[in-house]
Amino acid sequence: MTRPNPNPNPNRLTLFVGVLAAAAVGLTLVSRAIEISPIALAPIYMFSPMLAGLVVCLTRGIPLSDVGLRVGRARWLAASTVVALPLVGVTLLLAVAVPGVGFDPMVDPLPGVALPAGLPGVAVTFGLVLALGTTVNALFAFGEEFGWRGYLLWELAPLGFWKASVGIGALWGIWHAPVIVAGYNYPSFPTVGVVAMTVACVSFSPVYTYVVVRAESAIAAALVHGVFNGAAGFVVAYAATDDAVLGELVASPVGLAGVVAFGLAAVAIALSGTPTLSRSFSSGEPVGRG
Predict the structure, then answer these.
(1) What is the pLDDT of residues 74-88, one digit of tens each?
(2) Number of helices and strands (H, E) in the chain?
(3) What is the pTM of this model?
(4) DSSP string, 67-122
(5) For 152-192, what is each residue's pLDDT tens digit?
């Protein structure tokens, strides 16, 4: 059992980042050795933050329940399953409002899936997004979130809600670099894309932190992450443009439109009262306001 420490521990952080760096190097080497894109190996790479978090916790005597591996508060877990949907909706509205970007109502949001016409089809689509987002997607997302909003949030908690969120978001974005430079999300801008993805992750991070603190569980972040990954495709599908800058860097869930949507959510968190962040965020203690 570790002794209580009011500050982030440099040795633990170095170990965590070191495992992440080793995973990134391993991804690159393996992809080159077997001549396959790192993007194809991304589902495996997604579990490297979990691996890094587990290595730190298990070698430094940190109970997994302390870093959010617990069920937590049911009503906030339920809220976490839907919070991404309005944010994706706002992202889409912002995207199609950009000059040079249009709304394509004829697009098939789920290619290969026969949907009923009209409102029933919309309901089925959202039902599928929620079903996949809270199961398959959330499972893979938890591979990331145990590291980001589990161990790392616990470690950086003494910095407070906003600094911890920004720090996690920055590392989260940089961690994507091996797949971004391979063409993921920003195929026309593989280098600029690393910066764009980092900015996007920083903007997403306060919302993810908020639900984890309220739910007292890292599972909440996995649910938001999983549903967002599933629903974000609607923005890509419906926001029509032939301009690569607009399509990839502006009217995109991980472009300017998504950054603004999540930025507005961060402002709402600040105005409503930022929850106090401490290392007891998953202990079941009452959450105050900072």
Answers:
(1) 999 999 999 999 999
(2) 15, 2
(3) 0.92
(4) GT-S---HHHHHHHTTTHHHHHHHHHHHHHTSTT-EE-TT--SSTT----SHHHHH
(5) 999 999 999 999 999 999 999 999 999 999 999 999 999 99
